[in-house]
Amino acid sequence: MTAITTHQSIPRTTTTTAAPVIALKRRTIDSVLIGLGAVVSVVLFAAGGLLTWGANFSNDYVHDELASQNIAFPPAAALQEEGRTDLLKFAGATVDTGTEAEGYASFINGHLEGTADGQTFADLGGVERAAKGAVEEATANGASVTEVAALQAKADVITGQRDSLFRGETLRGLLLSAFAWSTIGRIAGIAATLAFIAAGVMVLLVAFGIRHHHKVVVNQS
């Protein structure tokens, strides 16, 4: 007899090692969140303090610099006569705030526009040189005294206009700079208020977090 041997395959078993599960306790998470909230609160309070200091410095600086110039708006009657009814709210007031500085800059600009038909100090540069050149040319060519005097008078008018424009534009620029700094101070004040509000909210959240953390510790003990 012939023996028949049957070979059956035996399945191999592979052992897999499960990755360790890292579990964070709820009170650990609460502690981390409370710490972050406390840090954010401190940062917001510091930012609010710095923004408040910046706002106060800007406002005080603008006020002191403007007040020292003793600039005042004309009375209401004079403003109405010039057609500046938009500035009646400032009538007779001393310029010592950014808003008043902007208003007075507008008042100056109205006068500048009527000085040389809307031309600026820079625009009159070439006109003034040409007028003075005409005087020199007329003198060199032996023109009459009357003609030279007329040309000189024209040149003097242009020079006077240019000087007025220079002073007016300079003062207007300084006033608008004061208005800009005042605006920056106002924005800083608003940002400071928002920072303090956000800091207060964070403090409340931290307080609720501490309370919840205390309950978890009590329940787990």
What would you say this structure looks like, in words?
With 221 residues, the chain is an all-alpha fold. The protein has one domain (29-220). It has five helices and no strands.
Short description:
The chain is mainly alpha-helical and 221 residues long.
Question: Structural class from helices and strands?
Answer: mainly alpha
Q: Which descriptor suits the 3D outline?
A: elongated
Largest sheet, strands/sense/barrel:
none
Number of helices: 5
Low-pLDDT runs of 5+ residues are none
Taking all residues together, what is the mean pLDDT?
A: 86
End-to-end gap: 78 Å
Q: What is the string of helix and strand elements? A: HHHHH
What fraction, in percent, of the residue positions are helical?
A: over 70%
**Extended strand count:** 0
Count of the separate structural domains = 1
The Rg value, from CA coordinates, equals: 40 Å
- Beta-strand portion reads under 5%
Key features?
71% helix, single chain, 5 helices, elongated, mainly alpha, 221 residues
